Amino acid sequence: MQADHAANEGYIIDAWWRRLPQRPATAGLIMLCVLAYTATLVGAVASSPDPLTTLLHSIWTLEGSEPVLIRLGALELTHVWLDGEWWRVVSAGLLHGFFIHLLLNALALGSLGDWVEHAWGAWRTLLIFALSSIAGCLASLVWCESSMVVGASAGALGLAGALLVGRRFGSQPLQTKLEPISSFSLAFLILVCLILGAVVPWMAQAGHIGGLVMGLVLGISLVVRRTAWRIAIGLAVGASLAILSLVGASPPWPAAVHQFLGLRALSDRDTTAAVGHFQAALESDPSNAQVLNTVAYQLALESRELDYAEDIALRALALEPTNPNFLDTLGWILCQRGEPRPGVPLLRAAVFLAHESVPEISDHIAACVNSAE
Protein backbone atom coordinates (compact mmCIF):
# COMPACT_ATOMS: atom_id res chain seq x y z
CA MET A 1 0.00 0.00 0.00
CA GLN A 2 2.89 2.34 0.66
CA ALA A 3 5.24 3.56 -2.05
CA ASP A 4 8.95 2.83 -1.97
CA HIS A 5 9.80 6.45 -1.15
CA ALA A 6 7.87 6.36 2.13
CA ALA A 7 10.17 8.75 3.95
CA ASN A 8 7.50 11.25 4.90
CA GLU A 9 7.54 12.62 8.45
CA GLY A 10 9.47 9.57 9.62
CA TYR A 11 7.04 7.07 8.07
CA ILE A 12 8.58 3.86 6.85
CA ILE A 13 7.12 0.90 5.03
CA ASP A 14 5.11 -1.63 7.06
CA ALA A 15 5.91 -0.02 10.43
CA TRP A 16 2.44 1.11 11.47
CA TRP A 17 2.71 -0.91 14.70
CA ARG A 18 5.57 1.34 15.82
CA ARG A 19 3.18 4.29 15.72
CA LEU A 20 0.31 2.69 17.64
CA PRO A 21 1.13 4.62 20.84
CA GLN A 22 0.44 7.80 18.84
CA ARG A 23 -2.72 6.31 17.28
CA PRO A 24 -5.24 5.92 20.14
CA ALA A 25 -8.24 5.25 17.91
CA THR A 26 -6.51 2.57 15.85
CA ALA A 27 -4.92 0.96 18.90
CA GLY A 28 -8.23 1.04 20.75
CA LEU A 29 -10.13 -0.65 17.92
CA ILE A 30 -7.54 -3.42 17.65
CA MET A 31 -7.57 -3.90 21.41
CA LEU A 32 -11.37 -4.15 21.50
CA CYS A 33 -11.27 -6.78 18.76
CA VAL A 34 -8.61 -8.77 20.61
CA LEU A 35 -10.51 -8.61 23.90
CA ALA A 36 -13.76 -9.64 22.22
CA TYR A 37 -12.03 -12.58 20.53
CA THR A 38 -10.43 -13.64 23.81
CA ALA A 39 -13.83 -13.63 25.51
CA THR A 40 -15.27 -15.66 22.63
CA LEU A 41 -12.45 -18.20 22.76
CA VAL A 42 -12.64 -18.60 26.54
CA GLY A 43 -16.40 -19.06 26.40
CA ALA A 44 -16.22 -21.58 23.55
CA VAL A 45 -13.47 -23.65 25.21
CA ALA A 46 -15.17 -23.56 28.60
CA SER A 47 -18.48 -24.81 27.19
CA SER A 48 -16.98 -27.42 24.84
CA PRO A 49 -17.06 -31.17 25.62
CA ASP A 50 -13.64 -31.36 23.90
CA PRO A 51 -11.78 -28.17 24.90
CA LEU A 52 -8.47 -29.10 23.25
CA THR A 53 -10.07 -29.74 19.85
CA THR A 54 -12.10 -26.54 20.11
CA LEU A 55 -8.96 -24.59 20.96
CA LEU A 56 -7.10 -26.08 17.98
CA HIS A 57 -9.97 -25.50 15.54
CA SER A 58 -10.34 -21.90 16.73
CA ILE A 59 -7.33 -21.05 14.55
CA TRP A 60 -9.26 -21.44 11.28
CA THR A 61 -12.94 -22.03 11.99
CA LEU A 62 -15.69 -20.59 14.19
CA GLU A 63 -17.21 -24.06 14.70
CA GLY A 64 -18.21 -24.37 18.33
CA SER A 65 -18.08 -20.64 19.02
CA GLU A 66 -21.43 -19.71 17.45
CA PRO A 67 -23.48 -19.77 20.69
CA VAL A 68 -20.88 -17.62 22.47
CA LEU A 69 -20.72 -15.17 19.56
CA ILE A 70 -24.50 -14.80 19.60
CA ARG A 71 -24.48 -14.09 23.34
CA LEU A 72 -21.72 -11.50 22.89
CA GLY A 73 -23.51 -9.64 20.09
CA ALA A 74 -23.03 -11.27 16.70
CA LEU A 75 -25.42 -10.10 13.99
CA GLU A 76 -27.77 -13.07 14.17
CA LEU A 77 -30.55 -12.08 11.82
CA THR A 78 -33.52 -13.55 13.62
CA HIS A 79 -32.52 -11.84 16.87
CA VAL A 80 -32.98 -8.57 15.04
CA TRP A 81 -36.19 -9.56 13.24
CA LEU A 82 -37.91 -11.28 16.17
CA ASP A 83 -36.35 -9.74 19.25
CA GLY A 84 -35.57 -6.22 18.05
CA GLU A 85 -31.90 -6.45 19.12
CA TRP A 86 -30.62 -3.68 16.86
CA TRP A 87 -27.59 -3.12 19.07
CA ARG A 88 -26.05 -6.10 17.27
CA VAL A 89 -25.33 -3.95 14.19
CA VAL A 90 -22.81 -2.13 16.41
CA SER A 91 -21.29 -5.02 18.37
CA ALA A 92 -20.87 -7.44 15.44
CA GLY A 93 -18.06 -5.37 13.93
CA LEU A 94 -15.79 -6.07 16.91
CA LEU A 95 -16.32 -9.84 17.09
CA HIS A 96 -14.35 -12.54 15.27
CA GLY A 97 -14.99 -16.25 15.15
CA PHE A 98 -11.47 -17.59 14.64
CA PHE A 99 -7.86 -16.46 14.99
CA ILE A 100 -6.98 -16.05 11.30
CA HIS A 101 -10.07 -13.88 10.82
CA LEU A 102 -8.98 -11.69 13.73
CA LEU A 103 -5.36 -11.53 12.55
CA LEU A 104 -6.24 -10.43 9.00
CA ASN A 105 -8.67 -7.76 10.17
CA ALA A 106 -6.29 -6.50 12.87
CA LEU A 107 -3.54 -6.09 10.26
CA ALA A 108 -5.95 -4.22 7.98
CA LEU A 109 -7.16 -2.00 10.81
CA GLY A 110 -3.61 -1.22 11.89
CA SER A 111 -2.32 -0.31 8.45
CA LEU A 112 -5.38 1.63 7.29
CA GLY A 113 -6.28 3.17 10.63
CA ASP A 114 -2.75 4.50 11.03
CA TRP A 115 -3.01 6.58 7.87
CA VAL A 116 -6.62 7.65 8.38
CA GLU A 117 -5.79 8.82 11.90
CA HIS A 118 -2.69 10.59 10.59
CA ALA A 119 -4.86 12.37 8.03
CA TRP A 120 -8.00 13.22 10.02
CA GLY A 121 -7.40 12.47 13.68
CA ALA A 122 -8.71 9.95 16.20
CA TRP A 123 -12.39 10.95 16.44
CA ARG A 124 -12.96 10.98 12.70
CA THR A 125 -11.20 7.63 12.40
CA LEU A 126 -13.59 6.15 14.96
CA LEU A 127 -16.56 7.74 13.19
CA ILE A 128 -15.56 6.36 9.78
CA PHE A 129 -15.01 2.87 11.20
CA ALA A 130 -18.23 2.87 13.24
CA LEU A 131 -20.52 4.15 10.50
CA SER A 132 -18.92 1.89 7.87
CA SER A 133 -19.23 -1.14 10.14
CA ILE A 134 -22.88 -0.34 10.90
CA ALA A 135 -23.61 0.19 7.19
CA GLY A 136 -21.98 -3.16 6.42
CA CYS A 137 -24.04 -4.95 9.06
CA LEU A 138 -27.25 -3.35 7.79
CA ALA A 139 -26.38 -4.35 4.21
CA SER A 140 -25.84 -7.95 5.38
CA LEU A 141 -29.18 -7.79 7.18
CA VAL A 142 -30.95 -6.51 4.07
CA TRP A 143 -29.37 -9.10 1.80
CA CYS A 144 -29.88 -12.00 4.28
CA GLU A 145 -26.52 -13.38 3.17
CA SER A 146 -25.83 -15.39 6.34
CA SER A 147 -27.65 -16.30 9.52
CA MET A 148 -24.76 -14.83 11.53
CA VAL A 149 -22.26 -12.09 10.64
CA VAL A 150 -19.19 -10.93 12.58
CA GLY A 151 -15.94 -9.14 11.78
CA ALA A 152 -14.28 -5.76 11.36
CA SER A 153 -13.81 -6.06 7.59
CA ALA A 154 -16.69 -3.71 6.72
CA GLY A 155 -15.20 -1.04 8.98
CA ALA A 156 -11.72 -1.65 7.56
CA LEU A 157 -13.02 -1.29 4.00
CA GLY A 158 -14.71 1.93 5.06
CA LEU A 159 -11.34 3.24 6.23
CA ALA A 160 -9.83 2.15 2.91
CA GLY A 161 -12.56 3.93 0.94
CA ALA A 162 -12.14 7.19 2.86
CA LEU A 163 -8.37 6.95 2.51
CA LEU A 164 -8.60 6.43 -1.24
CA VAL A 165 -10.80 9.52 -1.64
CA GLY A 166 -8.46 11.60 0.51
CA ARG A 167 -5.40 10.45 -1.41
CA ARG A 168 -6.91 11.18 -4.81
CA PHE A 169 -9.09 14.23 -4.21
CA GLY A 170 -8.02 15.81 -0.94
CA SER A 171 -6.49 19.23 -0.53
CA GLN A 172 -2.81 19.70 -1.25
CA PRO A 173 -1.81 19.56 2.45
CA LEU A 174 -3.81 16.34 2.86
CA GLN A 175 -2.29 14.75 -0.22
CA THR A 176 1.15 15.71 1.05
CA LYS A 177 0.39 13.89 4.30
CA LEU A 178 -0.72 10.82 2.37
CA GLU A 179 1.98 10.98 -0.31
CA PRO A 180 3.68 7.71 0.74
CA ILE A 181 0.48 5.82 -0.10
CA SER A 182 0.04 4.50 -3.62
CA SER A 183 -3.60 5.13 -4.56
CA PHE A 184 -3.32 2.50 -7.30
CA SER A 185 -2.15 -0.13 -4.83
CA LEU A 186 -4.88 0.85 -2.39
CA ALA A 187 -7.56 0.54 -5.09
CA PHE A 188 -6.08 -2.79 -6.18
CA LEU A 189 -6.21 -4.18 -2.63
CA ILE A 190 -9.85 -3.06 -2.29
CA LEU A 191 -10.64 -4.85 -5.56
CA VAL A 192 -8.88 -8.03 -4.38
CA CYS A 193 -10.90 -7.96 -1.14
CA LEU A 194 -14.16 -7.63 -3.08
CA ILE A 195 -13.19 -10.47 -5.44
CA LEU A 196 -12.39 -12.70 -2.47
CA GLY A 197 -15.73 -11.78 -0.94
CA ALA A 198 -17.45 -12.87 -4.14
CA VAL A 199 -15.79 -16.31 -4.29
CA VAL A 200 -15.26 -17.28 -0.63
CA PRO A 201 -18.62 -18.55 0.72
CA TRP A 202 -18.17 -17.51 4.36
CA MET A 203 -17.20 -13.90 3.59
CA ALA A 204 -20.02 -11.36 3.94
CA GLN A 205 -19.83 -9.64 0.57
CA ALA A 206 -22.86 -7.41 1.08
CA GLY A 207 -21.28 -6.22 4.30
CA HIS A 208 -18.02 -5.46 2.50
CA ILE A 209 -19.80 -3.41 -0.15
CA GLY A 210 -21.90 -1.55 2.42
CA GLY A 211 -18.84 -0.65 4.47
CA LEU A 212 -16.83 0.42 1.43
CA VAL A 213 -19.59 2.63 0.03
CA MET A 214 -20.07 4.32 3.39
CA GLY A 215 -16.32 4.94 3.66
CA LEU A 216 -16.21 6.47 0.19
CA VAL A 217 -19.11 8.79 1.03
CA LEU A 218 -17.56 9.83 4.34
CA GLY A 219 -14.25 10.42 2.57
CA ILE A 220 -16.00 12.76 0.14
CA SER A 221 -17.57 14.64 3.06
CA LEU A 222 -14.10 15.16 4.53
CA VAL A 223 -12.51 16.52 1.36
CA VAL A 224 -15.26 18.86 0.14
CA ARG A 225 -14.80 22.42 1.36
CA ARG A 226 -18.31 23.84 1.26
CA THR A 227 -20.33 23.52 4.44
CA ALA A 228 -23.55 23.10 2.48
CA TRP A 229 -22.15 20.05 0.72
CA ARG A 230 -21.01 18.53 4.00
CA ILE A 231 -24.47 19.01 5.50
CA ALA A 232 -26.09 17.45 2.42
CA ILE A 233 -23.76 14.45 2.58
CA GLY A 234 -24.43 14.07 6.31
CA LEU A 235 -28.17 14.03 5.68
CA ALA A 236 -27.69 11.49 2.88
CA VAL A 237 -25.69 9.23 5.22
CA GLY A 238 -28.41 9.41 7.87
CA ALA A 239 -31.15 8.74 5.34
CA SER A 240 -29.24 5.78 3.88
CA LEU A 241 -28.80 4.16 7.29
CA ALA A 242 -32.48 4.72 8.06
CA ILE A 243 -33.57 3.13 4.77
CA LEU A 244 -31.25 0.16 5.28
CA SER A 245 -32.72 -0.31 8.77
CA LEU A 246 -36.30 -0.21 7.50
CA VAL A 247 -35.62 -2.68 4.70
CA GLY A 248 -33.50 -4.87 6.96
CA ALA A 249 -36.34 -5.16 9.46
CA SER A 250 -38.48 -6.80 6.76
CA PRO A 251 -36.27 -7.91 3.83
CA PRO A 252 -37.88 -8.55 0.44
CA TRP A 253 -36.40 -12.06 0.15
CA PRO A 254 -39.04 -14.48 1.57
CA ALA A 255 -37.05 -17.66 0.85
CA ALA A 256 -34.02 -16.49 2.83
CA VAL A 257 -36.10 -14.99 5.63
CA HIS A 258 -38.17 -18.15 6.13
CA GLN A 259 -35.04 -20.28 5.95
CA PHE A 260 -33.41 -18.37 8.81
CA LEU A 261 -36.64 -18.25 10.80
CA GLY A 262 -36.86 -22.03 10.39
CA LEU A 263 -33.33 -22.43 11.75
CA ARG A 264 -34.26 -20.23 14.71
CA ALA A 265 -37.36 -22.34 15.37
CA LEU A 266 -35.26 -25.51 15.27
CA SER A 267 -32.85 -24.05 17.81
CA ASP A 268 -35.88 -23.32 20.00
CA ARG A 269 -37.04 -26.94 19.57
CA ASP A 270 -40.20 -25.82 17.79
CA THR A 271 -40.26 -28.38 14.98
CA THR A 272 -43.76 -27.51 13.80
CA ALA A 273 -42.87 -23.84 13.29
CA ALA A 274 -39.55 -24.79 11.69
CA VAL A 275 -41.17 -27.06 9.11
CA GLY A 276 -43.74 -24.37 8.37
CA HIS A 277 -41.02 -21.80 7.69
CA PHE A 278 -39.01 -24.27 5.59
CA GLN A 279 -42.06 -25.08 3.48
CA ALA A 280 -42.68 -21.37 2.97
CA ALA A 281 -39.03 -20.92 1.92
CA LEU A 282 -39.29 -23.74 -0.60
CA GLU A 283 -42.59 -22.44 -1.97
CA SER A 284 -40.93 -19.06 -2.55
CA ASP A 285 -37.95 -20.59 -4.34
CA PRO A 286 -38.70 -24.24 -5.18
CA SER A 287 -35.78 -24.69 -7.58
CA ASN A 288 -33.04 -23.37 -5.28
CA ALA A 289 -30.89 -26.42 -4.58
CA GLN A 290 -28.97 -24.69 -1.80
CA VAL A 291 -32.16 -23.86 0.09
CA LEU A 292 -33.40 -27.42 -0.36
CA ASN A 293 -30.17 -28.89 0.97
CA THR A 294 -29.95 -26.46 3.89
CA VAL A 295 -33.47 -27.34 5.01
CA ALA A 296 -32.83 -31.08 4.67
CA TYR A 297 -29.52 -30.94 6.48
CA GLN A 298 -30.80 -28.91 9.41
CA LEU A 299 -33.68 -31.34 9.91
CA ALA A 300 -31.18 -34.23 9.73
CA LEU A 301 -28.95 -32.62 12.36
CA GLU A 302 -31.94 -32.38 14.68
CA SER A 303 -33.12 -35.88 13.66
CA ARG A 304 -36.59 -34.51 13.00
CA GLU A 305 -39.07 -34.95 10.14
CA LEU A 306 -36.60 -37.29 8.41
CA ASP A 307 -39.03 -38.52 5.75
CA TYR A 308 -39.66 -34.93 4.72
CA ALA A 309 -35.90 -34.23 4.90
CA GLU A 310 -35.14 -37.18 2.61
CA ASP A 311 -37.70 -36.00 0.06
CA ILE A 312 -36.22 -32.51 -0.26
CA ALA A 313 -32.64 -33.86 -0.17
CA LEU A 314 -33.51 -35.97 -3.22
CA ARG A 315 -34.98 -32.88 -4.89
CA ALA A 316 -31.70 -31.03 -4.28
CA LEU A 317 -29.69 -33.92 -5.72
CA ALA A 318 -31.93 -34.02 -8.78
CA LEU A 319 -30.81 -30.44 -9.48
CA GLU A 320 -27.11 -31.02 -8.66
CA PRO A 321 -26.45 -34.79 -8.65
CA THR A 322 -22.67 -34.53 -8.07
CA ASN A 323 -22.68 -31.98 -5.26
CA PRO A 324 -20.75 -33.57 -2.36
CA ASN A 325 -22.62 -31.54 0.26
CA PHE A 326 -25.94 -32.80 -1.04
CA LEU A 327 -24.74 -36.42 -1.04
CA ASP A 328 -23.53 -35.97 2.51
CA THR A 329 -26.95 -34.68 3.53
CA LEU A 330 -28.81 -37.64 2.04
CA GLY A 331 -26.34 -40.16 3.49
CA TRP A 332 -26.61 -38.59 6.92
CA ILE A 333 -30.41 -38.61 6.75
CA LEU A 334 -30.37 -42.34 5.99
CA CYS A 335 -28.04 -42.93 8.93
CA GLN A 336 -30.29 -40.87 11.20
CA ARG A 337 -33.24 -42.98 10.06
CA GLY A 338 -31.41 -46.14 11.16
CA GLU A 339 -30.40 -47.21 7.66
CA PRO A 340 -26.60 -46.91 7.92
CA ARG A 341 -25.68 -49.45 5.25
CA PRO A 342 -27.06 -47.47 2.27
CA GLY A 343 -25.96 -44.25 3.95
CA VAL A 344 -22.26 -45.07 4.20
CA PRO A 345 -21.62 -45.41 0.42
CA LEU A 346 -23.26 -42.05 -0.19
CA LEU A 347 -21.06 -40.44 2.46
CA ARG A 348 -17.93 -41.99 0.97
CA ALA A 349 -19.00 -40.83 -2.47
CA ALA A 350 -19.32 -37.32 -1.04
CA VAL A 351 -15.69 -37.46 0.14
CA PHE A 352 -14.59 -38.68 -3.30
CA LEU A 353 -16.42 -35.87 -5.09
CA ALA A 354 -15.06 -33.27 -2.67
CA HIS A 355 -11.49 -34.30 -3.64
CA GLU A 356 -10.38 -33.75 -0.05
CA SER A 357 -10.98 -34.88 3.50
CA VAL A 358 -13.94 -32.99 4.93
CA PRO A 359 -14.06 -33.27 8.77
CA GLU A 360 -17.85 -33.02 8.85
CA ILE A 361 -18.33 -35.86 6.35
CA SER A 362 -15.63 -37.95 8.02
CA ASP A 363 -17.46 -37.59 11.33
CA HIS A 364 -20.70 -38.67 9.65
CA ILE A 365 -18.99 -41.75 8.16
CA ALA A 366 -17.56 -42.77 11.53
CA ALA A 367 -20.91 -42.35 13.27
CA CYS A 368 -22.70 -44.18 10.48
CA VAL A 369 -20.27 -47.11 10.49
CA ASN A 370 -20.47 -47.40 14.29
CA SER A 371 -24.26 -47.56 14.16
CA ALA A 372 -24.05 -50.33 11.55
CA GLU A 373 -21.89 -52.56 13.76
Instruction: Report the β-strand fraction as a percent range.
Output: under 5%
Specify the structural class: mainly alpha
The run of helices and strands is HHHEHHHHEHHHHHHHHHHHH
Question: How is the largest sheet built, in terms of strand order?
Answer: 1-2
Query: What overall form do the CA principal axes indicate?
Result: elongated
Helix content: over 70%
How many structural units, i.e. domains?
A: 2
Task: Give structural notes.
- The structure is a single chain.
- The protein has 373 residues and is mostly helical.
- It folds into two domains: 16-249, Rhomboid-like fold (Up-down Bundle); 254-372, Alpha Horseshoe (Serine Threonine Protein Phosphatase 5, Tetratricopeptide repeat).
- Helices cover 73% and strands 1% of the residues.
- Strands 1-2 form a two-stranded antiparallel sheet.
- Helix 7 packs across helix 8.
- The longest helix is centred in the first third of the chain and has 24 residues, at 24-47.
- It is elongated, with a radius of gyration of 23 Å.
Task: Give a short summary of the structure.
The chain is mostly helical. It is built from 19 helices and two strands.
Topology:
Blueprint: H1 24-47, H2 51-57, H3 66-72, E1 75-76, H4 77-81, H5 88-91, H6 99-120, H7 122-143, E2 148-149, H8 153-169, H9 172-177, H10 183-199, H11 205-223, H12 227-249, H13 254-267, H14 271-284, H15 289-302, H16 306-319, H17 324-336, H18 340-354, H19 359-372
Antiparallel strand pairs: 1-2
